[in-house]
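One thing: mind reviewing this one?
=====
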Amino acid sequence: MTVPSHSRPSVTPSVTPGPATLVAVLETVQAIGLVLDVDGRIVFANRYLLELTGWRVGEVVGASWFEQFLPAADAAGGGRTALAQGFAAAIANGTIWPHHENDIVTRDGRRRRIAWDNTLLRAEDGRVTGTVSIGRDVTDARAAECERARLAQRFAAAVEAVAEIVWTNDPDGRMTGPQPGWAAYTGQDEAGYHGYGWAAAVHPDDAQPTIAAWERAVEARTPFIFEHRVRRHDGEWRHFAIRAVPVFDDDGTLLEWVGVHRDVTEERARE
């Protein structure tokens, strides 16, 4: 399927370069649909891209994609030169331009992060005539990932700063993943405390009552308040007050449990 190249025209958006079927498909997808010729000039840009960036079709068709839409340097430290070189290599070698992400710049100077999937266009004789790309706007998703990473770092810092033992459980109430506070206090490794393995560090008289009360809280998705004795890594039993709360997503999905063990041994002795 060959998509003809176009010089930059002063035309209306009704102009549809290339086969009608390809254009119809690219206009249907809820993502960027882009056709480039072998020199990286824009042959076709769908309405999604135009609405996302604020450009008009007459301003982009025939223009260099790399000069028109890409910043000199993107958020990952690359830039239009490196991406143009990658594109040129794909054309020269007849290989598919690999999946990648990069920033594009809107008409008013905003940046959007786009994840691209690409394929080659070929003439009947096998000669490469251009590329077709589908781009998904992942700006908000990447921002959310950065925010989650930032919150995770803050949580890790808080765990190290507080005197209490801070821990997390999965939505089903099972301990998973690194639990540095619990591991340091009890001497259990991850394999030891995984699931309900933590109960091995709880006093034998308190373990089953703790599990029963914990399962009731998990089933009801309500805060867990309890007390029991925990064996320190040196073998001493210490008395702890426990409070754990469920953490919910905006849509009500239970994400995890966050709990705190506070040593109240001296308080109970005084009482």
